[in-house]
Every structure is written in structure tokens, then in C-alpha cells.
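Task: sequence in, structure out. Protein: Polyketide cyclase/dehydrase.
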Amino acid sequence: MKTCVVTANYACDPSKVWLYLTKPTLNGWRKDVRDFEESDDGLHVTEHNTDGSTTELRFTRKEKPRCLSCSFENGKVSGTFTAILLGGGDSTSLECTMEVSGLGLFAKPKKLLEDRLNMLHAALGV
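Result:
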């Protein structure tokens, strides 16, 4: 299992960052997700990826707009993800922790997480 922590800052309200984190197809910000399905309670999400794979997410904590935690599975890759949002008004600091297993010896989960946060940064336009 590999673990990484990444911090990012955004010049916008935490509620906006939260909205994008929980809606991967909003304004097409996640370039790797074609569409997604969400359960009625919002705790189970299925992402249909552009490469044909499917990612299953099960949220264990959703405290709008402060924290979210989930476990995920995509084929042989599984793990957990936690995001903590700090700030208010026009500034948000986002701290993400991800644990991943099944990526192989040379996998770089930090790069995967940073790529998604860069997509978020571009979508927010900040």
C-alpha cells in the first residue's frame, strides 16, 4: 500500500470546491470521467471513465463543505481518499490523503492525485 498527502490552495469559497469534488462531471472538470451515477443518499457513486473502466466509490463521511472520505475500487486498484477543506469566503485550502493498493511497484499515487487537483484548479479558474 502506498500513501500520499497533497495540499492545494484555491481562491474561492470551500462550497464551490466541495461541489466540484462531489460532482466529477460538473463543467467537464474531470477529463477522465465520461459520466457518473449517484445513489439517492449520495453515499455510493459509480464513475464511468473515458478509458472504459468503472470506479466505485463508497463515502463514509460527507460533511459539507468541510470533509469527505471514501473508499474506492477500480479493477485491481483499491484504496481510500480523504479531503479536508479549510478556509472561507474567497480562500480554500484543500488537504488530501490517499492510500492506494494494487498499483504495482512503480506506481505514483501522488502524481495521480496531483493530476486531479490540477484539473480542479483549471475548472475553478483560480
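Residues 30 and 116 are 7 Å apart (CA to CA).
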